[in-house]
Amino acid sequence: MAALEEGFTLSAVPLGAGPHGLLGVEQSDRPDQFLVTDGGRTVILYKVSDQKPLGSWSVKQGQVITCPAVCNFQTGEYIVVHDNKVLRIWSNEDVNLDKVFKATLSAEVYRIHSIQGTEPLVLFKEGAVRGLEALLAEPQQKIETVISDEEVIKWTKFFMVFRHPVLIFITEKHRNYFAYVQMFNSCTLSKYTLLLGHEEKSVIQRFTASVDRKVISLMSLSSDGCIYKSLIPIHPNDPEKNQRVVRSLLLKTVVSGNVRNGIALTVLDQDHIAVLGPPLPASKECVSIWNTKFQTLQTSELPQGTSGQLWYYGENLFMLHGKFLTVIPYKCEVSSLAGALGKLKHSQDPGTQTVPHFVNWETSRGYGFGSQNSEQSKRILRRRKIEVSVQPPPSKQLLSTIKKDSEKRIVEELCKFLASKQTPDFHTIIGDIVLELLGRHKVEPSFYPRNALMQLIRTHVLSYSLCPGLMEVALEKTDVQMLQLCLQQFPDIPESVTCACLKIFLSISDDSLQEAEINMESVSDYIDSVQEEKMEEQTEILHNGFNPEEENCDNCDRELNKKPQDTAEETTSCPVIPKRAALLRNAILHSAYSEMFLLPHLKDIPAQHVTIMDWICLLLDANFTVVVMIPEAKRLLLSLYKFVKSQICICSELNKIEVSFRELQKLNQEKNNRELYSIEVLELF
């Protein structure tokens, strides 16, 4: 069967601080990008493969986003509703939501739905549905009431069936549940009453659904901890009649029955369901993958708790783990008995922990599991011994060595461990070893196992989220070599840590850098080539003296006059030594970042270190031919041109008064016989 891979933190910023957690996670127009709507004022666009935000937009103070933001797949724009009635539409280029398109609607919106192949649909709290284009053509149009008084929408989902959109939403009134199915190709709305059967006292807490050609399979998680299934026809016999559908038991006691919060479920495919919540009263919260066809189970614990929200897009499970948005990759495989038993070749990694859980086939016949092959399946299951592979712990000998022995002994044992055959859980074991080393360093500050840590980093399996304390220790020790290695290999370093590394690289003395082992990676050749190119091409350079012909800045676009030889020599030299240049170019400038999160930390850099800009100028000069040719750099080059032009204008004005200041300096040098106090009047022409 498919394995639950190790999850990773998508957001380094705490989310879901509001009472309702996250409002939603929605697919963007690109498969690897997702819109995350926080339960307050913010919408963030994330790229999962880079584990970084691409953009963030917020409404004004006092405004509240009331439904998840979605992407209009036909236009690539984003849509959100705040304060229930105010609709906003924007694109990636927009920065301020207060300045984008705005439409105030006449009724309160429950949800906006958007999927590939059709225009977005707006579902109002009273049950009416409008297409986005028709709604924008007349925002104040009257919205009819579809559901009855005291009936409240609890859940909704949007499908495409034979290229026709189908919307289903569930309502609740006095613990009675109703399903509405809206067919847009025939403009029909059907209503169904969900009969609870023998579990009348239970309360339905969560819904999910899948669809095939003719039937919607509605699954519900009730307060008794069981999952029930209802089959709702897409094309009813009598759409005008209130029809009834019966629920049948699908899975029994998937979560603890006494849990009211922190539970969720979502359908993955026709045979797999993901459930969020504690399976037993005393157990920790976890995400569970159920195979409904063969009743097998896979689990992954969430020790920091969750908000009870779960989404599945593009073979990724999204959830809040603690206060951070976490992604767990999971790819559903074709359901088969061999795969369910873990006997399918290449179907499961040896290190994955799988807990098969089988229903009593004799008692499940009444709920749809008693097929003609049930007896044969029962015999197979009773006869075959299920072997559960348990993830092996890290090397006990190595961990015991870390706790008490010297660093030399630890390095010896570590080399033996790294030379052994790697298992699929190798990255987890490496993370445990790093945490053990850092834990001992915290208890014994004099113990700094630098060599062991460097070996572990070079395994290329670590990340910042797996061992955040590692870079903190390196910053504390001013270990620039370790910081450079982390910056080059970790894909998820927060911008605050990147800036902290930048400050270290700029402030450390040249003598200390000369003693450090830095990966130069062709920086020396790069600087030499830049200097040679500048010496050959720079025949005319700026002259800082006063030019009486330049009375204004209109002539700033012309070629600049020559500068004294000493200044020319200064401009062709790199402002930092080669090792510092290697740290800046190969580590800092190559680090992934989000402009929104990076800018606040860059403002904390001391003024004397801002001349890192000289190095960026060298980088642009070295690649100028390439930069000029690529369309993506056009806006950058225009901005740089305007900036440089304005700076030249300022320098030209300053140069005009430079001669006057020189004359003042001469006068000061000539009059050495001044009294203690004097008043002099100088006329400047």
Automatic annotation (TrEMBL):
SUPFAM superfamilies: WD40 repeat-like. It is found in: Nucleus, Nucleolus. Its main location: nucleus. GO terms for biological process: maturation of SSU-rRNA. GO terms for cellular component: nucleolus. Pfam families: Nol11_C, NOL11_N. Residues 1-331 form the Nucleolar protein 11 N-terminal domain. Signal peptide: none annotated. Keywords: Activator, Nucleus, rRNA processing, Transcription, Transcription regulation. Residues 396-611 form the Nucleolar protein 11 C-terminal domain. PANTHER family: NUCLEOLAR PROTEIN 11. This is Nucleolar protein 11. It comes from Canis lupus familiaris (Dog).
